[in-house]
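Reviewers asked in the last cycle whether our approach scales beyond single polypeptides. To address this, we selected a multi-component target totalling 316 residues and predicted its structure end to end. The input consisted of the following lines:
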Amino acid sequence: MPDPAELERDLRTAGLRVTRPRLAVLDAVHVHPHLDTEALIGAARTRLESISHQAVYDVLRVLTDTGLVRRIQPQGSVARYEARVGDNHHHLVCRDCGVIVDVDCATGAAPCLMPSGDAPPDFVVDEAEVIYWGRCRSCATAPAAPSTTARPAERGNP
Amino acid sequence: MPDPAELERDLRTAGLRVTRPRLAVLDAVHVHPHLDTEALIGAARTRLESISHQAVYDVLRVLTDTGLVRRIQPQGSVARYEARVGDNHHHLVCRDCGVIVDVDCATGAAPCLMPSGDAPPDFVVDEAEVIYWGRCRSCATAPAAPSTTARPAERGNP
DNA sequence: CGGCGTTTCTTGACTGCTTCAAGGGAGCAG
DNA sequence: CTGCTCCCTTGAAGCAGTCAAGAAACGCCG
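The resulting structure, written as structure tokens, was:
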């Protein structure tokens, strides 16, 4: 649960104007990592009594462009957002339920790993994005996939 | 350039019926790795004089489901396909022009790396998908980004 | 070799996520 | 407080991909 004043400071530091929609969305992303845009619209509307669809899309774009939030999009999922930036962490994604879990990066700084040995032709690599695919505890024990289209959500209170 | 008979054998081995659309699409994916669906429709239409939109989507779905082709989708790109499967290789993606280059995996077998040390909670990881982001030779030397929306393509003849 | 059942392709329409565009409203410097 | 600039609202459109019904093709079998 981030301090509103701190969120405001983050916006100013990034050279952005401080508006209620931006504070609401930024707070929502902090509190609920890995939500998709639709869910973030809902989360923002619990903070403000009204905010448009489009405003949330605009805000998310600005926040990602300035690096205040990070956008992730595993195969078969819509765009999701998280506020944990700067550290070079990765994600585990459950193939069945779609839940996303953060994993720390071993080496720390980006790019945490370089293309191994032989192959890097003339590429200047600045980031290695890693997604670990597998199955979470509950989906690994329960044999059949419960949900058809995975609707990932965080562990915790909505 | 794969042998048509070999492609046919691959289809049969996977338990699929051999049809001209499937041979055309599968050949196109072999010859032109990392193409998107629209481009593959075009490539298939150079092999067959007519094939529908929908057929290509269906074929690609079946081929991915059976593991004959692999689907990749870097951030901000539409779905792309490649026929190099089985080896656990990864990709370099240029942030500017969007070109995709294969990189061999150091360790070989999937999952080539496990979530580092501390964090894997109850997850059974079976694959680690790695995308290296950076800039290719020409985009690294040329300062400004030439293309707005990246239109990745392979190096080679179309 | 030819018929039949099942799978697959064609045609056409549609969904859902995301973006474009124009105008009124809000933040912030002076 | 005033004005400039940027941001949010409203409404509509774009695009990749999907759904659905019927025709055509594959391939098993006699």
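Chain B has two domains: 4-72, 86-153. We regard this as preliminary and will revisit it once experimental data from Aim 1 are available.
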